[in-house]
Amino acid sequence: MRTDVLDRADAADTRAIVAPGLTRERATVRRRRRWVSFALIVLMAVLSIPFVFPTLWMITSSFKPIGEILQKVPTLWPASPTAQAYGEVFRLQPFAQQYWNSLYIAALVTVGTMLVAAMAGYAFARIRFPGANALFLVVLVGLLVPSEVTIVPLFRFVNGLGLINTHWPLIVIPIFGAPAVLAVFIMRQFFLGLPTELEEAGRMDGLGRWGIFWRIAFPLARPALAAVAIFTFLKSWNLYLEPIVYLSSKDMFTLPQALTQYVDAYGGPMWNVQLAATTLTVVPVLLVFLFAQKQFVQGLAHTGLKG
Amino acid sequence: MTSSAVQAAAVVAEQEGRPAHPRRSAATRRDWLVGYTMVAPVVLGSVVFVVVPLVAVVWFSLHDWNVLANTFVFAGADNYERMLSDQGLRDSLLASLWFSIGLVVLNVTLALFLAVLLNQKLPGTTTFRTFFFSPVVVSLVAWTIVWSFLLQADGGINGFLSLIGIQGPNWLRGDVTAMISVIVVQVFKNVGLNMILFLAALQGVPEEIGEAARIDGAGAWRRFRSITLPMISPTILLVMILTIVGSLEVFAQIAVLTGGGPGNSTTVLVYYLYQQAFRFNDFGYASAIAVLLFIIVLALTLVQWQTRKRWVFHEN
Q1: How many domains does chain A have?
Q2: Residue ranges, chain A, pLDDT below 70
Q3: Alpha carbon of residue B175 to chain centroid
């Protein structure tokens, strides 16, 4: 069809082609079309403000002295830049330790979830063993249970094991519990859609099940694994309820929890220090996003669909 | 694509699993063992961290259990009776309801609007898509902290408003404005996800139909309402239910932005549960609230699964 090869502006002119000779009308249509495009671009630019401004303001304000942040009308660029707030971030709390806590917990949870979910997803998709459906249903229960529903029994359980104020519950529960279920589901869907020929070839070459999984299926699952990795990492990185329930000492805190702790003696937030700390938290992830945008968008949209 | 692929894979798997010769049955059994081993971590994890806690929370909800006083006494349906006369719970259900309605309406409308804009294939679209999506990867607590600064009485939002001569309210200190603030902050944070889902759906609408309607003289709005909207309606329904279920789990935003206040105007159900358990140490009552939350989410999820069936059907 014509519209497949023509871009939209030209497609708008098909009417003019249908009624030949009306070149003036054609020019008017084109001019109006261009004006509408311009208006829409301006509209999108205006709409971008609430999405982009807070992040930009956060970054630039973290370099402002406190008086400048409190200025009535916010400015984007610091008039007298200072990195003083960044010093305070590390002086007031063991921020480097807290950063490391968040980082290593998220990394372990991500790797653990990828392995556990890939194995389970593969087995549920490919291997026919008695009771597979029943076991899959047991796993699917996790999709129905928000973490808040089970927080009381889990707290009791963790407390009973003496693991309060350790990172164990933040690592083990996400890898094996409800948060992993979505990952299992995504991996299973992926393996269901993967052609079996390559695995057959592996079998001919004498590979066993484990060999086929590790050497063939797992490497082929890279797109699905990327999606799982991205949303698992972000979920762990953003976790808030569980850390404030399980952790009590500052050197054990994770970032989201630590960010809210920069308050003065009266409980009022120390704006510049908080903004510096949030900037340090946000910018690395944002940079990774800008470089791997396609994977992020696809990965996260994927989970939206399946969740 | 999905369901036919599922069927095809199931057929293949069946053929693979069924022993062709009796000789192969040892190999088959070894295959079973591999299967059980591979699913064991997540199955055991689900039992220990999901199923058992779920049963436990129902059991706990039948008890009078104060952690500080160290009391754990069977109380039958006491906690559930208490719910019926608990004004705080009623308020929190109402707050959750307002939050969910506001969030869904605003989020879905804005997501659809942005998706339609991006689908016009104008210059700069990729950049704008990045802009609209970027808050999704910003840490939730960080995003909320920045907005809490901007929403102060003398914060940035009111500063901007004063430029055009409007005296803004103290957003986080008024009942209604606090709720609106929480909703709006959450919408800007996550609307990018729904936007992408809608964008994918819009790109699946064949252009030929719209073109035919255009030649028949249908205007842009008419084409959107009579062609595009019906064609992406399954996605809209799906996105709405996903957003409702997600909206019930809002916690960090409330904790950071308003602390449930002013009064308890933004104390949603989950925040109320948290307060009962970890501020008032009333684990029994908190468990009963957890059961209520589970029932609500369960009901919504069942509706979602019905919707998903329709959606998959539509895609085929």
Answers
A1: 2
A2: 1-22, 301-307
A3: 24
Q: Which domain holds residue A18?
A: 2-50
Whether A59 is covered by a domain: the verdict is: no
Each residue's pLDDT tens digit, B170-222: 888 888 999 999 999 999 999 998 998 898 888 888 888 888 888 888 888 88
Residue A26 sits in the same domain as residue A125? no
Q: Is A28 on the interface with B (CB under 8 A)?
A: no
Tell me, yes or no, whether A177 and A290 share the same domain.
Answer: yes
Buried b (16+ CB within 10 A) or exposed e, A47-61: bbebbbbbbebbbbb
Same domain, A249 and A156: yes
Q: Does A226 touch chain B (CB under 8 A)?
A: no
Contact status of A261 with chain B (Cβ, < 8 Å): no
**Residue A9, CA distances (Å) to A30, A69, A191 in order:** 7, 46, 42
Taking the Cβ of residue A292 and every Cβ of chain B, the question of whether any pair is shorter than 8 Å is answered with: no
d(CA A219, CA A39): 47
Nearest CA in chain A to B245: A146
Give contacts of A60 with chain B, Cβ < 8 Å. none
A31 and A138 housed in the same domain? no
Q: Does residue B267 contact residue B92 with C-beta atoms inside 8 Å?
A: yes
Do the Cβ atoms of B194 and A304 come within 8 Å?
yes
Q: What is the ipTM of this complex?
A: 0.83
How many residues appear in chain A? 307
| Residue A96 forms contact with B (CB below 8 Å) | no
A263 with A138, same domain: the answer is: yes
In this complex, the residue of B17, B121, B124 whose CB is nearest that of residue A128 is B17
**pLDDT score of A22:** 61
Mutate to test the interface with A, among B2, B50, B253 (most CBs of A within 10 A): B50
